[in-house]
């Protein structure tokens, strides 16, 4: 295809479409029909140029022109309850399922790290002395001490809300800061595992590891899983900066970023459930086995949700990204 001849033949149509788009809503019925016709023809022209003569400057202009025309013709689509239901039953679990190769290793390595820190602190008195004075440590770990009183220090509803807010912020930071080459995510994750390991080690040294696990496991299984999913997704986003694969770095980051944004919303709901458990179940008078059973049931439900609904949606092609019609047009990259 002779590109110069093609441009000369169709430039007037493109210019006319641009002028109609600038007029916005002030179009007559005939002009609106003309805009639709020109939009369809220009989209065809764009496809022909992409396949035959991919000139970057011309592609950039026509891509923007077609995107603007599409927005004008189709209008702004409003989110509906059906969109929310599709997000909860397909988009979000599919995104979590597809990122499992990142968050499962993250969960395993982080849990091992917390266990090592707990063992190191629990078996080395000199390390415990560096953490705090003996009287202060006894005050923290004794029956009814600070570790136990923490979960009943505030009314259940306000405590659950506070926990949910803090955890949701941590998850959101993991998801958003991952683009900075993974380092902020690793630091946030290390701080969480350090806090868990310190508590485990101190309570273990006091002979009360069973009490500690009875307080942490009911809500901690689901809460930590959500944090691991957020951290794994953040690490995946950071790796996309390093290695975007076959896509351009901008396109790859846009895809992963949109999916991460959706996961932030979904994980906020998951953390809300864990916050309710932490506020109402953990400090309750239920037997330890009953509280832990509730935590295990919540964790099992979430994993089944991810692997059954998410796996089915992922195999059907759902990536957790927004619908194609809702995405911004992407400028082509020169080959």
Secondary structure topology:
Layout: H1 3-22, H2 29-52, H3 56-74, H4 81-98, H5 100-122, H6 125-131, H7 134-141, H8 146-149, H9 156-177, H10 183-205, H11 209-242, H12 249-281, H13 288-315
Helix pairs in contact: 1-2, 1-3, 2-3, 4-12, 4-13, 5-10, 5-11, 9-10, 9-11, 9-12, 10-11, 11-12, 11-13, 12-13
Topology pattern, helix = H, strand = E? HHHHHHHHHHHHH
Q: What is the number of beta strands?
A: 0
Mean pLDDT: 84
Question: Which residues form runs of ≥5 with pLDDT under 50?
Answer: 324-335
- Helix amount, in percent? over 70%
Largest sheet: none
Q: Give the helix tally.
A: 13
User: Roughly what fraction of the amino acids lie in strands?
Assistant: under 5%
Give the distance, in angstroms, between the N- and C-terminal Cα atoms. Answer: 18 Å
Instruction: Give the overall shape.
Output: elongated
| Rg of Cα set | 27 Å
Q: What class would the helix/strand composition place it in?
A: mainly alpha
Oligomer: single chain
